[in-house]
Amino acid sequence: MPTAGRTTPAATALAAVSALVLLATACTGQGAATASDDPKADTTLTFWHGWSAPGEVRAIEENIARFEKAHPNIKVKVTGNMTDDKINQALRAGGDKAPDVVSSFSTDSVGKFCNSGAFADLNPFLRKSGVDKTKVFPAPLLEYTQFKGNQCTLPLLSDAYGLVYNKTAFAAAGITEPPRTWSQFTEDARKLTKPAGDSYEQLGVMPVFHGYETAPMRLAAQWSPSYFTPDGRSNLAGDPAFAKMLTAQKDLVDQLGGYEKLERFRAGFGDEWSAEHPFHKGLVAMQIDGEWRASMAEEAGVGFEIGTAPLPVPDDQAADYGKGYLSGTVMGISAASRRQNAAWELVRYMTTDTEAVVSFANAIHNVPSTLAALASPQLKVTPGFRTFLDIARHPKSSTTPARADGGTYQLTFQNFAYRTEKGDVPDLRAGLAATDRQIDTDIAKAE
Fold first, then answer.
1. Among 148, 360, 361, 419, which has the highest number of CB atoms less than 10 A from its own CB?
2. For residue 393, what are the contacts with CB-CB under 8 A and spacing of at least 6?
3. Burial status of residue 157 (CB atoms within 10 A of its CB: 0-12, 13-18, 19 or more)
4. What local confidence, expressed as pLDDT, does residue 447 receive?
């Protein structure tokens, strides 16, 4: 079952942005530099997280039990199934109602968390503990857990996005290996598509941006884009990568039947997190997804062989095949907490202890978030899962950068991408330039 990935799809993860606006008047606290509590004194921490499935909750509790055994003076009161909205309300209220430690699925919210001062900067704690974050965490994960040098969160497991495909359907279509370049991807998608009147018996891939994890940010990562200029201005029109990605995706939409026909077919798809997922049902032969999809398909009892691979890259970047988009869960300390030194002991254990990270990753089938855990012999690795570990380790894998507006800039780009794939954008470059201006305005307001 997906965890970190469950709320990172654009339609859900970015919805948390509106709630984060409440942090404009975020509570202030002692701050990391002045935390004065004794971490060896008897104390009780409150830890809020978003996991809710029984297996996920059990995995958290097992890690907390190991922490408490190693730190007998610190007890941890855990509350699960907490949304960013609930967290923000508690942080604004402050006092005993606010949690000491928080984990959030919304990586897009980090810029807002850091910029508002809701979470404490963890850099002083890292230095005091002698932890070199650049040697502990993969670079893209550090990118989405900090903002303007403020490391207000740390990674707590991660997600990598790649391609999950139906090997049986591939063999029937005469395809012997997964596509490595976009032109191969387009050709395979066409070969795998079986029309049925004005619908489909089988679709090679659902290319529209509403297709679960087929979000613009996932595809754009394969073009290695730069979302912002060095001086912080939106760069959608300035970097040709965005226009190339949108053009390639629109061409694929058109080749597979057009936007309206694809949308009618998509309307009959089952829930993304259920056994009725269209990949499980054989309705699509390829699925852009995270590390959880192959295991979910197996649990659903599919009647075909499953393969995994990195997403294809543009033909002129064939040498970079293997890269992908990364995101994940983050963990931080409330700036209002009066137990920040003790809270740091919990955050350090959960995010940097190799045994803790590996055991958690094994339990909930997410990608480990430290370099040591990625290489640990204790990590349970199936062939399908190894693909996503390799994506996470690839030097060209990337993420979307944190900004003061949280994920609003991504929503703006996403909405423009929706219009583009429908054919409602007559001038792509002019539209990207207008989107840049909107993003710059939004960010200026947030700052």
1. 361
2. 138, 374
3. buried
4. 80
pTM of the model: 0.87
The answer to which of 24-33, 66-75, 344-353 has the lowest mean pLDDT is 24-33
Q: Which residues sit opposite 325 in a β-bridge?
A: 398
The whole-number pLDDT of residue 89 equals 79
Strands 74-79 vs 43-48: parallel, antiparallel or unpaired? parallel
* Sequence letter at residue 80: G
Mean residue pLDDT across the chain? 90
Amino acid at 317: Q
- % of residues, the chain, pLDDT over 70: 92
Predicted local distance difference test score (pLDDT) of residue 431: 98
Return the pLDDT at 45.
97
Query: How many other C-beta atoms lie within 10 A of the C-beta of residue 184?
Result: 16
> Which residues lie closer than 8 Å to 386 by C-beta, 6 or more apart?
none
Percentage of the chain exceeding pLDDT 90: 78
* 84-124: pLDDT as tens digits: 778 777 877 767 778 999 998 878 778 888 888 889 999 99
Distance CA 64, CA 45 (A): 11
Residue 33's CB is within 10 A of a number of other CB atoms, namely 12
3-state secondary structure the chain: CCCCCCCCCHHHHHHHHHHHHHHHHCCCCCCHHHCCCCCCCCEEEEEECCCCCHHHHHHHHHHHHHHHHHCCCEEEEEECCCCHHHHHHHHHHCHHHCCCEEEECCHHHHHHHHHHCCECCCHHHHHHCCCCHHHHCCHHHHHHCCECCECCCEEEEEEEEEEEEEHHHHHHCCCCCCCCEHHHHHHHHHHHCEEECCEEEEEEECCCCCCCCCCHHHHHHHHCCCCECCCCCECCCCCHHHHHHHHHHHHHHHHCCCHHHHHHHHCCCCCCCCCCCCCCCCCEEEEEEECCHHHHHHHCCCCCCEEEECCCECHHHHHHCCCCEEEEEEEEEECCCCCHHHHHHHHHHHHHCHHHHHHHHHHHCCECCCHHHHCCCCCCCCHHHHHHHHHHHCCCCECCCCCCCCCHHHHHHHHHHHHHHHCCCCCHHHHHHHHHHHHHHHHHHHC
Token pair in block for residue 273: 């997190």
